[in-house]
Every structure is written in structure tokens, then in C-alpha cells.
Design a protein that fits this description.
Elements (H helix, E strand, L loop, with lengths): L3 E4 L1 H5 L8 H12 L3 E5 L8 H4 L8 E4 L4 E4 L5 E4 L4 H14 L4 E6 L2 E4 L1 H10 L19 E5 L6 H11 L3 E5 L4 E6 L4 H11 L7 E5 L5 H6 L2 E4 L5 H6 L2 E2 L7 H6 L2
Parallel strand pairs: 1-2, 1-11, 2-3, 11-12, 12-13
Antiparallel strand pairs: 3-4, 4-5, 6-7, 6-8, 8-10, 9-10
């Protein structure tokens, strides 16, 4: 029996309203009673994870947030693992982003806060990007961040994204989030790496992991897991690497798979 279940949130574990449905909560509780470890792996930072999980956050042993840049204990909400970007890597990501998308907006996750420039705030409003813009826009990128977030005015072209990823080099992880942004972090910060590091600390081998996802930033995580489950609403790239395809997220696909 698999020892660990790892779930993406948006488009996977959360329903069409961005919530945990009663069916999903029931399936998670059943899995816990069976002795399985549960974890979330999401592009959301912690401050956007805890509210949607609410009272059910303690069901999870770990929350891998910001695409794996930080792993947080589900019970205490304290970080157990973090991967910060070095200063020169931050600079490289910003320069290459502005070269690839001259009118892009830039934001950066640092600690428990999100900071951004004027362009990011404008684009976030136009494209309904999910980020809490609680700080006054600034032109100065902080010296310490675990993720750079790039917002483009129009949906970004895959070829531009590929060129950007190649330009920043192998020391950085570049992901394309379903939230309409591009996220840049340390090469040691992605869902797959965070999942495997957490599992190893808990004595779980990769083949004992079942991972669920729907978007491009879930592909490597699903490839690293012993069993990969794509949601019925998943992009073709996710379906291509999956061992199973379940119902869409707004039809309780996770609960349906766990109950089968």
C-alpha cells in the first residue's frame, strides 16, 4: 500500500470554487486513518494555502509551497526546509525576464511576504492573478527571496518561456503556473525535489508515493512518484506521464480515485 499521497491544490484537490469539498475531506480523513502520510505541493505561498485548507490543514503532514521553495510542517505551520535564491541568480532572473518580456511585471516571495513592482500590480488586476498585493509597489528587488514571480501582459508563448529557461541556466528552476505567471526559484526548489526530500526524511521511497496533478508544474513531480494520477481536467503533458486519469477536480476526482 502506498505510504504517501501528494496533492497539487488548484485544479486538483480543490474544487471549482477553490475549496476542499466534503467528499475530498472524507477521503483525506480515511487515508489518514489508514496510516498514509499526506502532503500538498503547490505554487501557492503559505499565506495562500492555509486559508483555503482552513481547519483541515492539520490533516497534512507537510505543505510544500511556492513550487517547493519551502516545506512547512502541517501541524505547526513552521518551515522545515527552504531554498533561497542567491543574489546573482536573482539579478540574472530579473535581467533575463525584462529582456524576454519588456513590459512584464515582477514580484518576489521573501519570508512570508510578497513584494512587487507597479507593472505587476497592473497586470495582476487585468489578468486576475492570484496574489495578495499587501505591500506598496517598489522598484527595489530585495536581497533575499525564495522565488521571483513574472507576470506578462498577454499569455506567454511557450517558445519564449523555453528561451528564458535556457537563458537563466541550469541553476534555476522555471515553472509555468496555472495562475498565469512564471515562477523562478533555486534549482533545488521544485515540487519533485521537495517531495522526494520530504519523503526521504520520512522513510518513504519514491515508489511508495502517489502524486496527483493537473498542470505543467506538476509534470516532474508525477514523473518522480511511483504512481502518477492526472486529473480529468489536466493538460495533455500531465496526462502523457500519468499512470491513471481520474475525474476532473470539480467532480471530486481525488476522492473518486482514493475510493476506487
Amino acid at each position: 500500500m502506498p505510504q504517501a499521497l501528494v496533492f497539487d491544490l488548484d485544479g486538483t484537490l480543490l474544487d471549482g470554487d477553490g475549496r476542499l469539498s466534503p467528499a475530498s475531506v472524507g477521503a483525506l480523513r480515511s487515508a489518514r486513518r489508514d496510516g498514509r502520510l499526506l502532503a500538498v505541493a503547490t505554487a501557492r505561498p503559505l499565506r495562500l494555502v492555509a486559508p483555503v485548507l482552513g481547519e483541515h490543514v492539520s490533516l497534512f503532514d507537510a505543505l510544500m509551497v511556492s513550487n517547493g521553495a519551502a516545506t512547512v510542517d502541517g501541524a505547526s505551520l513552521l518551515p522545515t526546509d527552504q531554498a533561497h535564491l542567491r543574489g546573482r541568480h536573482l539579478h540574472r532572473a530579473v535581467v533575463r525576464a525584462r529582456s524576454t518580456w519588456p513590459d512584464c511585471g515582477l514580484g518576489w516571495e521573501s519570508g512570508s511576504g510578497f513584494f512587487h513592482d507597479d507593472q505587476f500590480a497592473q497586470i495582476a488586476a487585468e489578468r486576475r492573478i492570484v496574489r495578495n498585493l499587501e505591500h506598496v509597489p517598489t522598484r527595489v528587488l530585495g536581497r533575499r527571496a525564495h522565488q521571483v514571480v513574472i507576470a506578462t501582459r498577454d499569455p506567454h508563448d511557450p517558445s519564449d518561456l523555453a528561451r528564458f529557461a535556457q537563458a537563466v541556466g541550469g541553476r534555476l528552476s522555471v515553472t509555468d503556473s496555472a495562475g498565469g505567471v512564471i515562477e523562478v526559484a533555486s534549482r533545488h526548489a521544485d515540487k519533485a525535489t521537495a517531495m522526494l526530500r520530504w519523503a526521504r526524511r520520512r522513510g518513504v521511497s519514491p515508489r511508495q508515493i502517489v502524486a496527483f496533478g493537473d498542470g505543467l508544474n506538476d509534470v516532474r513531480m508525477l514523473q518522480a512518484a511511483g504512481t502518477a494520477v492526472a486529473m480529468g481536467n489536466a493538460v495533455p503533458e500531465v496526462v502523457a506521464v500519468a499512470d491513471h486519469v481520474t475525474l476532473p477536480h470539480d467532480q471530486d476526482g481525488v476522492a473518486a480515485f482514493l475510493g476506487s
